[in-house]
Amino acid sequence: MNNINILLAVFILCVGGFLLSSCRKKAEGNKLVTKNGIIYKEGSNVPYSGKEKVTVSDRIMEYNIVNGKKEGIFKIYYMDGNPQIVGQMINNKNDGLWKYFYDSQQLESEGNFKNDIPEGAWTWYFMDGKLKEHGSYSSGLREGKWISYNETGSVISEKYFEDGKEVQKDKPNSKKIID
Length: 179
Hints:
The protein contains one helix and 15 strands, in the order H-E-E-E-E-E-E-E-E-E-E-E-E-E-E-E. It has 179 residues and is mainly β.
C-alpha cells in the first residue's frame, strides 16, 4: 500500500468513526446526525450550519458546516493542540492543500486534492524533515516521474508512471509497462 493510500485510509477512518459515532461526547455539545451526506442537528430537518468540534479516539476534529456540508478549514489535532491533519473542504469534499504531521510536529506529507481526489504534486518527508518521496497525481493516479530517497538524501529509486501504472524507461523516449 503506498503512502497516499495509507493517509487516505487514516482520514476515512477518522471521519467515518466520527460519522458512525454521533452519540460520542462533542467538545461543544452539538448532537449532529448525518442523513444522505447532509449534517443535521439531532431532531431537526433543517441542514445544520455552524462550527463542529468533536473528540474521537484521542484526537480533536474541527470544521465548519454550511447548509449541512463541511466547508472551509478541516483540522484533526492531538489533545495537546498540535495539528495532525490540516486541509480544506468544499461541499463535503477534500479540495486544495492538505498537510499531515508526525507526532513531533514535523511535516510528514503534503499535497493537493481536487474534488476529493489527489491531484498535482505530493511530497513525503522523514521525521527529521529530509525528503522521502516526491511525485505527482493526475485524477488520483500516479503520473510521471516519482523519486524516493533514503534517510541520508540519496536517491534510491526513480519510477515513471502513466495512468497510475509503472512504466520503465530504457532510453530517454522509450517506455514499456511493468507487470
